[in-house]
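Q: Got a minute? One more chain.
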Amino acid sequence: MDSPRKTLATVAALALLALASGRFPSAQLLSSLLDFHWSRLWPMPPVAEAQLQSSSAPQATPARRAVEPLSDPTFSLAPFYEAIERIESGQPGARLRLAHYGDSPTTADLITADIRALLQKRFGDAGHGFYLIDKPWAWYGHRGIDSSSSGWQIDASNLVRDKDGFYGYGGVSFRGGPGSRARFRLRDTSASQVEVAFRKLPSGGLLLLDACQSSSTPVPTAGENEDGWALFPIPPDCRDFTLHVEAGPVRLYGIDLLNGSPGVVYDSLGLNGAYISVLSKFLGQQHWTAQLQHYAPDAIIINYGTNESVYAAFVDTVFENELRQAIERIRAALPGTSILLMSPMDRGERDGSGAIQTAPALARLVEIEKRVAASERIAFFNTFEAMGGNGTMARWYNAEPRLVGADFIHPMPAGARLVGNLVYKAILDGYNRFKTARRSAR
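A: Always. Here it is, folded:
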């Protein structure tokens, strides 16, 4: 049934209910039913739409083929695949960790939540992973975690004017004092410990964790300007815990939720409005190196380009150089770690006639990423082509159910699931090809 017929059916049903009850809807309500857009539910901020809610609508399948393979002719993802093998072989304590750096869709854990769920279902759940102390944006959130915080000064690495480089693994820092708190509620009881990341300050204060009527010993954060981590156990079957600042100033980055089981940890590290300069410039090299070495991901996904794609001069003159710098910095911090360059999705915009078209510079940006991945000998996933290529957002916007929001950038949950499935299938396909190639070599 097409959209107009559904709307008429809704109005007819409403009229029948009104007749039965003797209460009639206003003309304004009827008008809104006849001209409804998802974008009215969420005011659109300058860069990103607010977090989109989950949908149970059936999934459409506009992708060109079931599996769009990763481009990885040299098997640069071998260390990543070997980590999967250790899990599959039952090696005690085997864990696979991925760090997914991206822009606004990943801010709300769209796409990344679907990849995480699929990988953990297949290979085991080792914990949720990294989560920020507070919400830099109202729509920040991860599937499986509810949070509320107060008393924090929030500094996102891509938004502050005076950048000092200290923004942690997730690219955001949080300054607080006595009374500042961060409360977290998990939707299951899979976490057995929470690790808090902070910056040591000469006058650093004390941190305390309350978890289900159990309070920890206060942990000092004082030190000589270096990074620190504090580990707090979570009682069995506890889903609620609150981090308090007991005394003095503190500067925190985030928490890491693990459960001690073998399996996958998938860190969604998205920043609203982010672009490649976050990794090439904004995170101080020595500081970011320490962060990466602490969390030690087996693979790092670089997933930028959406915001850059509407600035043709940046794409044509700056983007490639900064992308190569980001790759170089990761290699300097974690030699031998797998890197997967993931292109942005399609981005639509209206032309002079009102038709939705792909942003003109986007295809050029994707080609740059493809070329850089080949020359740097890292893996590449062409999300743009996998989801349908040029004009995809026009088709997604007109699909039933709708797969993208009214900005033609941010996927609806059904669209995010499609992209998450494409990435997951590509990873499994690459893993199977890796095992086949190795058996052939033997």
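A: The chain has two domains: 57-126+262-442, 130-260.
Q: Perfect, thanks.
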